[in-house]
Amino acid sequence: MTVLVTGATGHTGRHVVAGLQAAGVRPRVLVRDRAKAPDGVDVVQGDITDTAEAAGGVDAVYLLWPFVTSDGIEKALKPFEGKKIVYLSAMSAEHGGVWGDVEAAVRKVTGDWTFLRVTGLATNALAWAEKARTGVVRAPYGQAKRSVVHERDVADVAVKALTGDHKGQSYLVTGPEPVAQAEQARLIGDALGRPVTWEEQPPEEAKAQMSAYLGAEFAAAAVDYWASLVEAPEPVSPDVARVTGHPARPFAEWAREHFS
Predict the structure, then answer these.
(1) Per-residue model confidence as pLDDT tens digits over 112-129
(2) Which domain CATH number covers 13?
(3) For 22, 130, 133, 189, which has the most beta carbons within 10 A of its beta carbon?
(4) Same domain, yes or no, for 257 and 139?
């Protein structure tokens, strides 16, 4: 069996590669920079928007779509017609948006799909790293409660889906509990060995800053979503434990791994 891993140098992809190797499965990776490819894998240098070479002879694909729109997804998926596709999606896919659009495109090219719908990745907190080391994280909605998931848990679910029969399944992939963003900052401080406090940022200011790299519409939707989580925390799902056989890793463990 050969599995193509896209995003193989990123947060989840590198763990997917390692998990496949541990399971005795041959990974192939699609990377822009060959020098950054993991060891012991087939390497195809290229881009997710042009997958024809990478798709040849593979049985399954771990798909990461790194863009804020689905433009180009049909071309990217065409070489994977009929193959198993495990897509790193988001909980909001059921409401449309880029994740919903990509899911719809995947369904058109294969019936053997599995969607990993994450509430959020703990690695997004790495955006606070520089601020955390100054002792203050300034961002909006510190009391927004998120059930963010460790990237290794995402990878563990992905490996199970790639190597087993999980056809037509949509898994909600979450951490073990909702943790307020301000509490996440405090836990990062614990890992650093110094206090880290939260400073509330006006939402409109945050939207303006985020618009520079996410676009105005996506940035506004993200900040408004965090606002909703103050009163209605993100859900917690048993799917990590159900699929992998081990409990989801807590945010404190993630913080120790990345900031200690």
Answers:
(1) 999 999 999 999 999 999
(2) 3.40.50.720
(3) 189
(4) yes
